[in-house]
Design a protein that fits this description.
The complex is a heterodimer. By secondary structure, chain A is mostly helical. Chain A has 23 helices and two strands. Classes of the chains: A mainly alpha, B mainly alpha.
């Protein structure tokens, strides 16, 4: 504990204290009856364009993203930039598809994607599959948010042996748990405004000041090893790194919008118009993400991994320490404290939304569907509050006791799992042609095959698919989604012939204003 | 169903979907030159694409907004 950076730590604690107050005060913001699930878990669907922008931006661009993407650029180079096309192609999908989801969910009081699937296809088991996938995919994602927090706490010199070293993390999480319990989605919505302001300040300060310190952009890119500056062009009979880059971008975009926390953020908007406006406004975050990815190259150019004062940090956190080290190296201690607060608070916003989303899923689609069909609104909201605590506790235990590598692998699997709900949820918004049992079988095969494929390549994101002498290395999630879709299409007429019919509670007019 | 089809699709949406092509056609932008102010094409092109996509989405928003009420 002898190397504590007091200036940075005090700035960090002051900002953290402010958002703690804000988190609790948010309960009184746009006051609603927090004993109702849609008030606690969706902020009463009352957020306009601007708050939705902060909330969804703070939700999708997580602290882990802001640490891991530059770390990937630092370690692996150009491939990290797939985050840019990835976050470009999210928005056409958001613009075209999600207002339909928003309308049908408001009309029928749906709070989760599984609620919609239950209503659309009238099959509780398909809805259960969507529910379990959502919860299981979200858990490691919450755990990874803690990694962002852990890295910046370590960077300020707050370290310790064993469990004592995790005490700051535990305190931060208790605060998070308490204000989420009491304020619901209003807390991350209010805090997101502060968090994103800090992130924008950090990103623009970094890309203006650091290249000047390093002697210009030309010098920055000159410091990147040649083989990392661009993607390696593919050899004969393979799509090589090009295919990996494009499938990662497309598959990640499709998966991201299916995550429960994305749904929660989008459904809390006050109108379909607010969702569409945000499709045009949210790319501001993509731009910042691209700038932050370049911080990985700044770290290379500054050579922070070779400086003795950062040796311990790199030893403990590997490439994830690149950005914090760069901040300490390039900025005065007080501003480094601001950037660390941006990342630390940046962990709390998505972690809060994710735990609320998982709680909504459990409460609506397991508790009310299978365990307590006659639950009152108040019992339902109370159950969700408790589940949000349990989910966060699980994430905390995971990150304290389980090696980080497992959380990263599980998060990768989470992407493969969540994309399997696309036929039921996103295609389901356009057609009820599919038979729910065919969708369920497609989901099961996609999930099992994807898990097997990922394990067979030791949890790398790309799988080298071999077809007729060609190799197509690409994102496993996208490949298994295609398999899932083919199965659902082929089995639909079969299942219909077997007499497995279904009842659709939604009407065509429910999908638009 | 017909009303639904009308609302589900607008020709303007093609403009949104076209963005998938430059975003995902990697061989087109995997090069250093033409670089701008020391920034390789690979990096500035994709960043520029973010700005273009935002503008295109805004155009489509205003073009399709007339006649909607929510």
């Amino acid at each position: 504990m002898e190397h504590i950076n007091w200036t940075a730590l005090i700035v960090f604690i002051v900002l953290f204290g402010f958002i703690t107050w804000l988190g609790f005060a948010a309960a009184h913001w746009r006051r609603g009856d927090l004993d109702q699930l849609h008030e606690w878990g969706l902020g009463g669907r009352r957020f306009g364009t601007l708050i939705t922008w902060f909330l969804v931006g703070g939700d999708l661009y997580t602290a882990y993203t802001f640490i891991a993407v530059p770390a990937l650029a630092f370690g692996a180079g150009a491939i990290a930039f797939f985050a840019v096309p990835y976050t470009i192609i999210i928005y056409p999908i958001l613009f075209i598809v999600f207002p339909r989801l928003w309308f049908v969910c408001r009309k029928h009081g749906y709070v989760t994607a599984a609620d919609f699937v239950r209503g659309r296809f009238g099959n509780r088991w398909l809805a259960l599959a969507v529910t379990i996938t959502g919860i299981v995919a979200t858990m490691p994602y919450i755990a990874l948010q803690l990694v962002g927090l852990q890295v910046v706490i370590g960077a300020m010199g707050v370290t310790g042996e064993g469990l004592a070293g995790d005490i700051p993390l535990i305190i931060a999480f208790l605060i998070l748990a308490a204000f989420t319990y009491s304020s619901g989605l209003r807390a991350p919505a209010a805090i997101a405004v502060v968090k994103d302001t800090l992130i924008y300040i950090t990103a623009f300060a970094a890309v203006i000041i650091i290249p000047i310190q390093l002697g210009g952009w030309g010098k920055v890119f000159a410091a990147v090893p040649k083989e990392k500056l661009l993607l390696v062009p593919p050899g004969a009979n393979t799509t090589g790194a090009y295919g990996v880059y494009a499938t990662l971008a497309l598959g990640s975009a499709l998966a991201l919008l299916l995550y429960p926390h994305s749904m929660t953020g989008i459904l809390s908007a006050s109108s379909g118009r607010a969702v569409r406006r945000n499709a045009a406004l949210l790319p501001a975050y993509s731009f910042v993400l691209g700038l932050l990815a370049l911080l990985g190259f700044f770290a290379l150019a500054a050579g922070v991994d070779k400086l003795p004062e950062f040796a311990d940090g790199f030893k403990q956190f590997k490439a994830n320490f690149a950005v914090p080290a760069l901040m300490l190296h390039s900025f005065p201690a007080w501003f480094a404290g601001v950037t660390f607060a941006a990342i630390g608070i940046g962990a709390l916003v998505p972690a809060a939304i994710m735990s609320i989303a998982a709680a909504n899923l459990f409460t609506r689609n397991i508790y009310r569907e299978f365990l307590h069909a006659n639950a009152t609104d108040k019992q339902e909201a109370q159950m969700a509050k408790w589940v949000s605590l349990i989910v966060k506790l699980g994430a905390l235990i995971f990150i304290v006791f389980v090696p980080l590598q497992y959380a990263i692998q599980l998060q990768l699997l989470g992407g493969i799992w969540i994309i399997q709900t696309l036929p039921s949820v996103l295609i389901g918004l356009y057609t009820r042609w599919f038979n729910p049992w065919a969708l369920l079988i497609g989901w099961a095969v996609g999930t099992a095959t994807g898990t097997y494929m990922a394990a067979s390549v030791n949890f790398a994101a790309a799988y080298p698919l071999a077809i007729g002498g060609w190799t197509f290395p690409g994102y496993t999630a996208l490949y298994t989604l295609i398999l899932n879709l083919v199965i659902a299409i082929v089995l639909t007429p079969v299942m219909n012939a077997l007499g497995a019919t279904h009842h659709d509670k939604t009407a065509a007019a429910d999908y638009y204003a | 169903m017909d009303g639904n089809r009308e609302r589900a699709w607008s020709p303007w949406y093609l403009l949104l979907l076209i963005q998938f092509i430059p975003s995902l056609w990697v061989p087109f932008y995997n090069s250093v030159e033409p670089s701008v102010a020391g920034i390789p094409f690979f990096y500035w092109f994709q960043m520029a694409l973010v700005l273009v996509s935002a503008v295109v989405t805004a155009v489509v928003y205003f073009a399709t907004e007339a006649g909607r009420n929510g």
